[in-house]
Amino acid sequence: MAARVWFVRMKTTLNLNDDVFAAAKHLAAVRGTTFTSVVEEALRLLLTAPAAPPYRFDFPVTHGTRPPSIDIDSNAAVDEYFDRLEWGSSPS
Q1: SS3 at position 71
Q2: Counting beta carbons within 10 angstroms of the beta carbon of residue 39, is it exposed (0 to 12), middle (13 to 18) or buried (19 or more)?
């Protein structure tokens, strides 16, 4: 006994940017296929693509023997430090 397979197609409305619509319509014409098949393929590619790893930035850490020259818990001290850097005087 053969199993019956039913494919359900759903109609929906999409609000697309004019540029995206024109590019998809053009691609469909070049391929000789339908706009719907281009949208389906694009969605399938997006939904099956592996997720990109989260961006990670590693700050360089320098270990020294000198104590910190500013109190990093004080916004005023940090602002003053960067002001001295910006205006060319030596941060101490």
Answers
A1: coil
A2: middle
